[in-house]
Amino acid sequence: MPVRQHQRHAVVAGAGIGGLTAALALSRQGWKVTVCERAEGPTAVGAGIVLAPNALRAFDAIGFDPLPGTGRAPAMAMGLRRPGGGWLDRADPAALAARFGRTPLALHRSALTSALAAELPEGTLRYGAAVTAVTAVDEADGRAVVRTADGELTADAVVAADGIHSPLRRRHFPHHPGLHYSGETAWRTVLPAGTAPTGIPAAETWGRGERFGTVPLADGGLYAYATAVVPEGYRPADVRAELLRRFGAWHHPVPALLERIDPAQVLQHDLYDLAAPLPRLHHGRIAWIGDAAHAMTPNLGQGGCQAVEDAVVLAHLLARPDVPAALAAYTRARLARTDAIRVRARRAGRVAALRHPLAVAARDLAFRALPAEVSLRALDDLFDGFTLPGRTGQGPNGAARNGRRARGR
After folding, report:
1. Distance CA 77, CA 96 (A)
2. pLDDT for the residue numbered 3
3. pLDDT level of residue 6 (50, 70, 90 thresholds)
């Protein structure tokens, strides 16, 4: 009789969007999965997230619907404004849908993590079980030993989804320079459905070293955020007064929103990205995903989206029997794309954070003069860039773009 092989086991460090997506994708590949989360239980911490078409396409690949049982959210436009209210650039929902097959979907982060967790097999999630160390990761034919606050586990693969300050990244890449402060801090909050004015578009307003954004959520709430160029670690004593001082004279509905926010529900985080790319996204039997792998500033709205892509690609490759080879293939598939987006997000942030009046005027003039077709085309590599290794044509424009590249255009 043939010897029955053991069910392969993956340990995921971190129950954020990337970690839960990896857990779901791997479990649907037949893996046993244990998610180890340092928090003591599920939390509603977080604000909004925009799932761009590339992330939605990645979710499609594993059969996951971010809005289970509710149908699709209304098409969402995007736009860029000046503090006085004038528009610099607008993306029409119909044009977005025609080019990328769909428009972005915005929802509360906790709604997304809850939906992902609900799809996992019972017993997958372990709270209060932070991963403290992984050993024996260099043995090509051996299993990793994962030490957690809740005991030890053995695993055929370990997914490091332990966030921007990833302890596993620091431990296994000790010479990496770590994080780089962008020069900006961000305030984020969500106004629940019924407490925010209706009809507010998805838009970001750029001033001089300051930004304010609004994103309507699928449940009727509103995600609002602001950024400012400040010294690292700056924390105002009165959040509402600080935001009113900076944005209170901006266009409608910014002042009204600032009057409605609950300061206790406003999150403030300085914005960081990785100072340099990791040399690779795997080490032995560990693979890094999301912020742990390629922390990026939120200027392109791709941090969470790239975590979703990472997770789906990693699970797809781990269908192979040779785990070390699959993880090496994961690095080849993801390192160049994610680092290019990290660099692009940093550059976009520098443009948005300009403060000199002449530089701001030139920036705004350039955006107003940009044809709509050019603005849409600039999103191709982001929104239409998700592919599974071994497959082509995932995005509506994939075949056409590949054809242009093949002809050297």
Report:
1. 8
2. 41
3. confident
Which CA distances in Å does 2 have to 5, 156?
Answer: 9, 21
In a domain, 268, yes or no: no
Instruction: Tell me the pairing of strands 87-91 and 78-81.
Output: antiparallel
Let me know: does 362 contact 85? Beta carbons within 8 Å.
Answer: no
Quote the CA–CA distance of 211 and 200 in Å, as a whole number: 16
- 119 SS3 class: coil
pLDDT more than 90, % of the chain: 82
Give the chain's domain count. Answer: 1
- Find the Cα–Cα–Cα–Cα dihedral 356, 270, 187, 78, rounded to 10°: 70
What are the distances in angstroms from CA 198 to CA 47, 74, 262, 282? Answer: 18, 13, 18, 45
Residue 334 sits in a domain of what CATH number?
A: 3.50.50.60
Give the domain range for residue 152: 9-179+274-402
Q: What angle do CA 127, 129, 135 make, to 5 degrees?
A: 145
pLDDT for the residue 1:
39
The continuous run of DSSP H or E covering 276 comes out as none
pLDDT in tens, 324-380: 999 999 999 999 999 999 999 999 999 999 999 999 999 999 999 999 899 999 999
Cβ atoms of 211 and 352 within 8 Å: the answer is yes
pTM of the predicted protein model: 0.93
Residue 384 CB neighbour total at 10 angstroms = 22
* Cα radius of gyration rounded to whole Å, the chain: 22
Which strands sit side by side in the sheet containing 32-37, from one edge to the other? 125-127, 32-37, 9-13, 157-160, 286-288, 282-283
Q: What pLDDT is recorded for position 407? A: 32
DSSP three-state, residue 146: strand
Element (H or E) spanning 249, and its range?
Answer: none
Count how many Cα atoms sit within 13 Å of the Cα of residue 335 in the half-sphere of its side chain: 14
How would residue 199 be classed by pLDDT, with cut points 50, 70 and 90? confident
- 127 in a domain, yes or no? yes
Residue where the block lists tokens 């082509």: 392
For residues 261 and 237, what is the distance between their CA atoms, to the nearest angstrom?
Answer: 16
